[in-house]
Amino acid sequence: MKSWRTALLAFVVDAALVLVFVLIGRRSHGEAASFTGIVDTYWPFLVGLLTGWLVTVAWRRPLAILWPGIPVWLMTVALGMLIRTSVGQGIEPSFIVVATIVLGVFLVGWRVAAIPLVRRRRRALAR
Known about the structure:
The chain is mostly helical. It has helices at residues 4-28, 35-56, 65-86, 93-126.
């Protein structure tokens, strides 16, 4: 599972799930589904995700839960919130809580769900 394809797929899944979080949040608050509105909400978290991937060298073990999964999740949330604050987008305590929970379920949860699939594939390749 150390191939560049696996790493690329894992990053794309992470980025897509962060985008899903953004889309759900914007819709639940009745905000416009405009391209610029979505990008304005998405980019701080995408920068956090990219930073998490770089700091943890996530491409080496992209499906691992403890490292890089959990740190990538926490950096995505923390840096996303810091960037939002620094550019005047603002954050509410409830938003921090919801973002932490949802992004945790998304970014760590899919890795947990992938464990049986990876094990099955390894067994099949070993035969």
